[in-house]
Protein 1
Amino acid sequence: IIRSIQMQNNIFNRTFIALNMNRLFGLFLVFIFFTSCVQEEVVTFTSVSKIHEENASIEINIPVAQGETVLSKSINKTINDHIANMLNFSEEPVNNLDLDQAIEQFDQEYSSFKSDIAESALVWEAIFDSEVIYQSSEVICIALNSYLNTGGAHGNMNITLYNFDGETGELLEPKDLVSDLDKFTEFVKPYFIQAIAQKDDEGIEEYFFGDPFHLPANIGINDDGLLILYNVYEIGSYAQGITEFTIPFEDVQAFLQYQ
């Protein structure tokens, strides 16, 4: 009888332990699930379009970060400030310039131009297209393409890559994205040579206006790796256009500080 009772107690204890282990394991899975959700939570975006054609032609297509977080506010302010300053005729960039006021000012400048040169058929044009090209919990990269035509042989196009820290919303410089810029510059050079070889028959000596090879003002991250982008006139003539290429993650991993 005693042995029977002991066996029953052992079975009961094993059952009790198993039930509690299952319960703890279930709680552990719930914890991991919610922790992962918090770690991977990133800002969401909606697309916003504006068309202004009262006098000049202005078209704006941008992603707007949702919510009132520091990250969302930083992204939206940076994009709005960029577009407002492109439309503004001040020599120095202005912080917190109202976008609607900048649109109105651009329109008024065009009206003044038409008043002075009534015979001109030119309609000033400004187009801004922006998209999120990479998004993770660590970094968000947004590409903003600007095109302005206020006269001259052709309009001016410029692409700006903005990288934001995924938590603080801080704008990241190239030195924040990659380590050891001097070594990284030498690492990038063969990729640049390969990129221009695919684009035209000119060699690297036809670029950089006689200066040594250097990194562009715009470095960003896309789904395939690190994006290197030289704008028109940055290293060559208008005819040479934009030079851009992506270095795969597996090649550039040793330098990356964000991903």
Protein 2
Amino acid sequence: RLKHEPSEDVRTYASNGVRFLYNESFIDRCSTEALMFILTNAVMHHVLAHQQRRLGRKGALWQLATDYAINTLLHRNGLKIPTGANYDKAYEKMYAEEIYEALKEQFYAEGDDAFGETTPPQEGTKSQEGAAEESIVLSGEIREDLDTQTESEWHYADSVAREVATRKSALPSGFERLAKKMRSSGIDWRFELYNAINKHMRNNYAFMPPNKKHIYRGIALPSLASDTLSLCVAIDTSGSIDETLLGAFLEEFKAIMTNFPAVKIELIIADAKVHAHYTFQGGEKLDFPVKGGGGTDYRPVFDYIDGNIPMSTMLLYFTDGDGWFPRRPPHYEVLWALSRDAKVPFGRKLVLFSQK
């Protein structure tokens, strides 16, 4: 999917989801195994949507975190990790977001802004003294955010590749951890959910700063600017939700917190009434009691949001879909994260678990 182009502007290699840029002298010195690693590493950044998941994190530190996440996956699947690549067994089975937080604590004190968007850490990488020149810096650049069309194309290509690999019983080890994709009727519910959240985070245009893509032509076009997303998450704790399912709902809530650390989330615990309301932001510890066990009535949650969180942009409701619904849809978007396929009168449903 990447068009290969030599470029003297890059030291090693870089990719923007459309082109694979490489320094010819660097590539000429690489072994076949190193080239296999480089190309796979570049593709995996796009397969795992690392550009879209950055969300305001420091560019070079995020690049390092995503490299660690990918390279532990490649090592687990038998690819040789060249000397100088960012690899550490300690980060195995960790999300890039989790690794980022660990690296931030390792390299920088709280509030230290000495590390910028493009300056890499000065210590902690796996380069070894005396290593061959071509493997001293085996980390490429992942440049620019993908446009919507390219993002969709990568998602489609990824879906096809996974389907083929699954049929051949050759799905790479570790994908269930890093991608965490559960499907129902061919729909990747997490991709749909994260796309919906991202849509609200970047849905306004502004001239400050301008779109840099056309500046060289003397044309100043507006760029996408992020609105403050007000996300509500409701978790159904009624008697029809057993402990296993409730635990799954809570785990998915934690995953959202991890993947969207900049988003403030209003968490509502409810069955036939609202039992509690908590406010969380990424990085905070999740420590709260879970009350419930009664019937299921969705109306109190919508009434509570209208009365207490009126500026909400989206409601994500984890439930089994068996309860009393409001007669009219609210002014904000509603996503029903369902444990099984069920009818909903409004909003969009995402079925988390396939029926057995």
Protein 3
Amino acid sequence: MIFRCFVVLVGYWLANVGGVAHAEDGKRGSQGNQPNIVLIFVDDMGYGDIGAYGAQSIKTPMLDQMAQKGLMLTEFYSASPVCTPSRAALLTGRYPVRYGVNKVFFPETFLGLPQEEHTIAEILKEAGYATSIVGKWHLGHHAGYLPTDHGFDEYFGIPYSNDMRHPALMRGNRVIDSRPDQAFITKRFTEEASDFIRRHTDGPFFLYLAHTMPHVPIYASPEFVGRSAHGPYGDVIEEIDWSVGEIIRVLEEEGVAEDTLIVFTSDNGPWLEMEKYAGSAGGLRGGKLTTFEGGKREPGI
């Protein structure tokens, strides 16, 4: 399950990287060995949509570099082949069916992630972390169910999927844009995430960057439209790869890259019914909505 792999990765970083390198140089990372954590979670990306996982017509140089220099997992699974329960499991470490989050939430849904559940944001906040989610939440949009009710200090994003009614853009618990231009949504999320990093370089932080793309309807900003040999879907993935590169660049500029664990993965497999607007499961059977390998095995870097 994704969350448990995530915990193992944090433990590995503490045992083999954070506690060794920084005990010598006396940097902030040596103070309690608390690494910054950046979790990048994309929507409906297939196992075969990244160069390191076999993509031929989509260029992902930053993710490929992460895979080469870091740890690339080839048997990394989500807890569900659909959005909401996958995200619930990611943040709580529990199978979502155990607490009733086993279906996709919609704008007319009055439910949300139960308040009695403990999220990784709450646990890290108690450990002194600044916490932020930028992007898609999809775990309840009514009072009591928003990110700020589940351990996040800051929230900037949309409360559910980008194909549901008009996906309003929120800051904290308030709507700030009722009809955001989704052509610029990946860029806006990247800028917001970068700003959070710059404002929290003096202590440990947890940044959950949950892109709405490549969930349909797909959008890429003007400078990425027509760039990919794979068409519009490839354009979107290449912009996400650019976003990853921007996050790494900001971490390096702020001098905290070596104190930061970055994890990249997806909530579920490709929505194959969308045909040319869907990704590739990389030869695995099935995709989103199925419990075959293509629906639940995700890229994990």
